[in-house]
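In response to reviewer comment 3 from the previous cycle, which asked for concrete evidence that the modeling workflow produces usable outputs, we include below a single protein chain processed end to end. The sequence was submitted unchanged, and the resulting structure tokens are shown without manual editing.
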Amino acid sequence: MADLQRTVDELAARLGRPLLLEDRVQRVVAYSEQSGVMDDIRRDSILRRHTSPEVRQWLRATGVHEAAAPLRTPGAPHLGLLPRVCVPVRHADGLLGFLWFIDAEPAMSDGHVAEAAAAAPAIALALFHESLATGLASHRELEAVTGLLLGERDAATQLIEAGAFPQAQPVTVQVARPCAAEPDETLRLGLEQGLLTLRRRLGGHHPLHLVRFDHAVLLTAGPPVSPDELHAAMPVPVVVGIGRSRPVLAEAAESYREARHAAEVTARVPGLGRTAEWAKLGVYRMLTHLPDQELHPGLEGLLADAQYLPLLETLETYLDLAGSAVATSRVLRLHRTSLYYRLQRVEKLARTDLKDGGERLALHLSLKMARLSGRYSPRDSHNSS
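The workflow returned the following structure tokens.
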């Protein structure tokens, strides 16, 4: 509730006008400092925490429950009601509440109405999150999940004792990272909305979530939910990383670390597809921890010049296939003589010997590290492992 109150106070300060937030049955949720003109209805609503039946009936007749955009409601002198601006608060087409502004002395400008409407989605997410948090207020759940992913074991105890997660089930963490969009507040709100909608459908998995600046985190009891569901819930294309399940919630930070690394690798290596499990990343599990400057010195010149890309693609395919010329020729649809010519050029340009096992290993690892750093991007990779 503290987050909602802060949002209401900040919006009121920006508009220079007091406001009141109600839920969908017109119970008062939060309100700003009530300076300026105030009628008896506003005063009674704050004191009693709800609106009288007569006023609710009058306002319902103006169409506020059906409205999808802000509307101005007329005054009702017989009820002691001044004109108002009502901004409906909706999530996924469902009505969650109302923002109310007294529209008098002076009337609210169209610009301020538009600014209030722009703030409604964030308030809707906070209200929706509040309704999903079981036993914990939404801001306390957010704090607990944040602590959990930082490795604070007390956070797991808090979530379990509040009934937000079962004590006897393992936990799996998935991370969704936008593919191309630049992180901003609009993207963050979109990721939040996607995860909240998904949580509503995943009740049996006891889901928890957190949205960071550039990625979204989903925690579920038991095995991971279908990545297709996570992809479908996101407002923009994402890559998804999946950490290994851990036996207890207190170890969720380890699954989160793996999921985040898997998402980063998937973003850098398009050949892996849109989803990657940490347990199936192969050599990339190790390479994510190594500095990308430590490449085979003979590859530097080849990586710096686009004309050598076909040679690098041939070399990587050859090394991926354990140095089998037969298999490489078949995969690349390349005559054996042409293959040998390319490999000999690589040896000369990179000052290496492909008959040396240590050299082959260094070259192979260097190509994978160059993928991760973005210095090497094959045009049509047959194999990304």
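The radius of gyration is 29 Å. We consider this sufficient to address the reviewer's concern, and the full set will be provided in the supplementary archive.
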